[in-house]
């Protein structure tokens, strides 16, 4: 049975992110190769991946090459570095679906690039990226930036189970 996966902030082609976020790569090419391998080791061809933004800094041809190599049905929620390009640009780059806005998943998980304000009375969990190695405190936030998860997309079950454990500890 296919699974749903979540990840954000690959920054393909962004060599400066290696230093900004202390990524363990010699250069952008090694970073691209390793991140594609880790994605494909977790994600099968029938799976769906929600990428929560800041996918690529490369031109459309190079971005298409990467998207083509990645397993699964790919849904992009645009990040701050993606929004300079149109929704159709990203569809032409190979994404199956693209949203300019946050998406509600399973009526409970708000998928966005940047963390969305959630007060303590809101029942939702915000699955987000954008803040890389940082973490928001509280049971309402779940950061899927690549730096937190060894560049491996997370399954819905991994997120759900982490949120349930967090709830039980609260």
UniProtKB/TrEMBL annotation:
Listed name of the protein: Phosphoesterase
Pfam families named among the record's database cross-references: Metallophos
Any GO MF annotation of the entry: hydrolase activity
InterPro entries: Calcineurin-like_PHP (IPR004843), Metallo-depent_PP-like (IPR029052)
Domain of life (superkingdom): Bacteria
Domain Calcineurin-like phosphoesterase: 6-142
TM stretches of this protein: none
């Amino acid at each position: 049975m296919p699974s749903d996966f979540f990840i954000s902030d690959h920054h393909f082609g962004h060599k400066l992110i290696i230093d900004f976020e202390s990524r363990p790569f010699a250069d952008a090419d090694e970073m691209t190769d390793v991140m594609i391998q880790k994605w494909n080791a977790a994600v099968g061809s029938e799976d769906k991946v929600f990428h929560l933004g800041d996918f690529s800094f490369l031109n459309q041809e190079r971005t298409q090459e990467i998207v083509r190599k990645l397993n699964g049905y790919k849904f992009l929620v645009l990040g701050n570095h993606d929004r300079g390009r149109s929704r159709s640009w990203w569809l032409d780059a190979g994404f199956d679906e693209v949203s300019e806005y946050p998406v509600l998943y399973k009526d409970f998980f708000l998928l966005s690039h940047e963390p969305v304000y959630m007060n303590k009375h809101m029942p939702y969990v915000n699955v987000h990226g954008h803040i890389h190695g940082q973490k928001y405190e509280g049971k309402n936030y779940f950061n899927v930036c690549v730096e937190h998860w060894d560049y491996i997309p997370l399954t819905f079950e991994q997120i759900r189970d982490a949120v349930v454990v967090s709830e039980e500890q609260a």
